[in-house]
Structure formats: structure tokens, C-alpha cells
Amino acid sequence: MPQPLTAVNDFVVKFANVNGSGSASANALFAKSILRMGIPASSRNIFPSNIQGLPTWYEVRISESGHLGRRGGVDMMVAMNPETWDEDLAEIEPGGYLFYDSTKPLPPSKFRDDINVIGAPLTAICNREYTDARQRQLFKNIIYLGTLSGLLDIDVAAIEKLIGEQFRGRDTLIKPNLHALHLGREWALGEHDCPIGLRLERTDKVGDRIFMNGNDAAALGCVFGGATVAAWYPITPSSSLAEAFAAHCNRYRRDPETKKKRFAIIQAEDELASIGIVIGAAWNGARAFTATAGPGISLMQEFIGLAYFAEIPAVIFDVQRGSPSTGMPTRTQQADILSAAYASHGDTKHVLLFPQDPHESFTFAAEALDLADRLQTPIFVMMDLDIGMNDWLVEPLAWDENRSYDRGKVMTAEMLEAGVEFGRYLDVDGDGIPYRTYPGTHPSRGAFFTRGTSKDRYARYSEEGPDYVDNMQRLLHKFETAKRLVPRASRPAMARSISGLPRRR
Predict the structure, then answer these.
(1) Is residue 495 pLDDT above 70, yes or no?
(2) How far is CA 247 from the centre of its chain?
(3) Pick from 124, 14, 5, 153: which is nearest to 80 by CA?
(4) Average pLDDT in the chain
(5) Please, which pLDDT band fits residue 172 given cuts at 50, 70 and 90?
(6) In the chain, N or C terminus with fewer CB closer than 10 Å?
């Protein structure tokens, strides 16, 4: 055996599995148990764009220093997929560890001389303990988790508690999962000198931080930010944002007495219908959003232009993925910036927010709803697959209970009745933002309809050049106003140092 790698609370473990095998739950338990030991960790789910059968990977970087990015190289490979064996083997650092199911013997040519091999008869243990084929597959995942707990010295009590939490309400599943966990752990402790060179020690570096993904955080931000309407069409990697919003609304947006829903969530027939529903709901005074990815942005272009030119609030979450065209739906990328910034034909300029992590996905979601109302325009929240679908260790979410929603310039029935001059596209404050009314605010005054054609300050149809120029210049002025309203950009000290900029003191 080569000289093994040795590290405490600073190494990378990667799981190579088959998509649809039920491994995701066990792998997530692995990452969460490390966090429960007070050790910072970041995880990345690398999966194919199919439902079942193709390879999938789950990489966990354990870093007491709190590093979040993928380091490169793997210190322990949990190789559970024969189809990717060769490429998985090649990723292991010299002196690192290969952990695999040794039930079926493999020839020496399938291994490397410069790594340490740990073979556990996982399938044999499952065949001995279980008769049902599906149980054998599912519990095999928990058994290898138990084995890793012994090899790496993971606090087994932390895993036990997590299993209890995961199956709360389905208590009959807790005992068999705990049994499978200890089958693996007992095998490791009986067959190996544990822990191996890579090991974990309890610390307090996590603090009160939480582990969550950006889509879930953004959905919760929409609830807190007052959104009551969501329209969407399923597309990776944004679908889970709309699904999370539905789950949060079912919990928080029901009448406490009647349990009646106080929200509307519509899975439309396509992305065009989705953004159309959002614009229609916002025109009527609701706070509304859609969640999509690059191909959806391409399809929404004309409706986005309508919302921009008619000046209707809308929030669009673009959870970016590999592109162009279908591209790589399950890989992260940040390639929609220009297509979102100038979405639609003609002279458009849109406000884009860029959350750096799930915590900002929460705060920017609520902020986007305020900005959309204040500016009467579409607001893009530019996320990506890495932020949206992967769990990050972030500061706890917080909400100021005294915060009130910024609905922007909305004329009331009393103002209209008092004879206040109303021009739907009239800039009375010098900031480029006109007043609007909700349809039906007053029986005879205010706006009931809107248009995507050119118009004058009072929303009367006009093809006169001066009217068009006046309107477009006001929209540009409104964009300048937006620069004062959006969250200020921040640059970490490390980034400033690398770029040669001085650090703030």
C-alpha cells in the first residue's frame, strides 16, 4: 500500500453513483452529518439531464477554513458506478483512497498502484440482510454511509439524529435505516484500523449558519416579499424554485381559520404563457413572478418588451445553465447576462440583480418584488444552477417584521376623486417613474387598459415622433433612477486584493 494521504477536516470526498439509485439521500446525510460536527463543508451535485440510468456524482469539500469552490482532485472516491470506474479512478490524488463494493472481485489491472484501496462487500451484506430487490439497493446506500462513518470517524449520533429528522412522520422507516447504518459501521470497525488517514474532528466552525439551496431560499424570499402569484413552465434548473414556492405557500399563505389558499400557482403550457400570466396578474395589482432558464428567456422576449414598454411590474428568476440552445441543462453557467439585460427587440434596458449565494437569493427575491413595483418594470434575478440547486453553508435568513412593502407610485381613488392630474406616463417627480392605478380603483378615472404601442404621456395612442422620443427618454431616465435603488455591489476583500485594488480600512 502506498503512503496514505493524511488530513483532518480538510479533504474532498466524491461519490460516483447511478442516477435514480436512491443514493442522493444517503450522500446528503453524509454532508449534513459533517456540518453537525461543526465542520464547514460544501457540496456539489453533478448529474445528467435524464431521469434514471446515467452517471451522477456528488462531491463534498470538507474545509475547516470555509472554502466553498471545488478544489480539484479527489482524496476519497466512493465508486459505486462500474460504468464510470476508469474516469473516477483517474481523479484520485496519489496516496488517496478508493472505496468500492468488493462483492464481485476485480482484476489488479482495474486499480492503481499509487492509491489505497478499501473494498467493502456491500452487495453481499445486502443480499444477506434483505430479500426485496429495491430494499437491497436503497439500504446499500445507507450501509456505505455507515462504513464511511467508521473509516472517517464521523459522529454516528449525528447521522442517527439526521435519519430521525428525515423520516419524521414515517417512523417505521427509522429503525431499518439505523440498522443498515450500523451494519456498515460495524463492518468498517471490525475490518479496518479506524479512522484512516483522512478523518474528522468535531469543531465549532459552522456556528449558526444554515445549509440550503438558492431556489428554496428565493422561493421563501418571494413569500416574505409578498408574492401571491407564480406562473411557470418546468425547466431545469429552475423548476424546484416554483415547487418550493408552492410548498411554502401551502404552509404560510393559507387563511388560518378557513385554510383557504391565498395564492395562485399556475403551471402554464409554455414559457410564453407563464410570463403573460405574470404580467396580467401584476397589471391587476398582484405581486407575481416566474422562474425559468436561458431557453425560457429566449421565448419570453416579446412579453418582456410589453412589460417594459407598458411599464408593468414583473419578477423573473433566471436560474442559468449551460448554453446555447438546449446546451447542458444540468451544468451551471452564467451566459444569459446580455440576453436578459436587453431582452426584447428595440431599446430596452433591464434591471438585473446578482445574488452571490442562497442567502442573497432570499433577500434579493424580496428586493426584486419591491423594485418591480417601485420602477414598474421587469426585474431579473440572475441566479445559476450552482447557487439554485446546490446546498450552501450561509448565514441564517432574517426578516425585519417592521418592514413594509414598497408598492411604488399608486394613485388611490381618493386622489383621483380629488382631481389630482393623472397621466399614466406622465413624469411628475422628475425621476422617470409615472403614477399608475390598479384597474377598478375608480369607476371612471384611472387606467383600465394598457398597450404595447407608442403613446403620449396620457396613454393615448400616438405615432408622433416627439411623443415617442419623450417616452423613450423618460424610460432611460427611469433606468438612471434605478441605479440609485438597487442593492450596492460588494466585492470580497480577496477579490479586491487579487485585482490590485486597495482594501477598505
Answers:
(1) no
(2) 15
(3) 14
(4) 93
(5) confident
(6) C
* Angle made by CA atoms 41, 46, 47, in degrees to the nearest 5: 145
Residues in Cβ contact with 368 at an 8 Å cutoff, skipping those fewer than 6 apart: 225, 289, 315, 353, 379, 380, 381
The whole-angstrom separation of Cα 156 and Cα 146 is: 8
| Mean pLDDT score, 434-439 | 96
Residue-wise pLDDT for 339-370, tens only, equals 999 999 999 999 999 999 999 999 999 999 99
pLDDT in tens, 143-168: 999 999 999 999 999 999 999 999 99
User: Which distant-in-sequence residues (6+ apart) come within 8 Å of 277 by Cβ?
Assistant: 229, 231, 266, 268, 288, 290
Q: Is the pLDDT of residue 494 over 70?
A: no
Sign of the CA dihedral with 277 first, then 280, 282, and 285 last: negative
Beta-strand (E) ranges in 258-337?
Answer: 264-267, 288-292, 314-320
Q: How far apart are CA 318 and CA 309, in angstroms?
A: 21
Sign of CA dihedral 328, 330, 334, 339: positive
**C-alpha triplet 436, 439, 445: angle, nearest 5°:** 75
- Hey, which bits of 354-502 come out as E strands? 378-384, 391-394
Instruction: Report the phi/psi class of residue 325: left, alpha or beta, with left for phi > 0 and alpha for psi in -120 to 50.
Output: left
CA–CA dist 440, 463 (Å, integer): 28
The secondary structure element, H or E, covering residue 246 is helix 239-252
Cell 408552492 sits on residue = 246
The Cα 471–Cα 473 span in angstroms is: 5
Task: Tell me how crowded residue 240 is: count the other CB atoms within 10 A of its CB.
Answer: 21
Please compute, for residue 230, the number of CA atoms within 13 A of its CA located in the half-sphere on the CB side: 33
Radius of gyration of the chain (CA): 27
Residue 427 has which C-alpha cell? 413624469
The H-or-E segment that residue 161 falls in is: helix 156-166
pLDDT > 90 fraction of the chain, expressed in percent and rounded: 84
Q: If you average pLDDT over residues 74-88, what whole number do you get?
A: 96
Residues in the chain: 505
| CA distance linking residue 218 with residue 237, whole number of Å | 13
Instruction: Look up the pTM and report it.
Output: 0.91
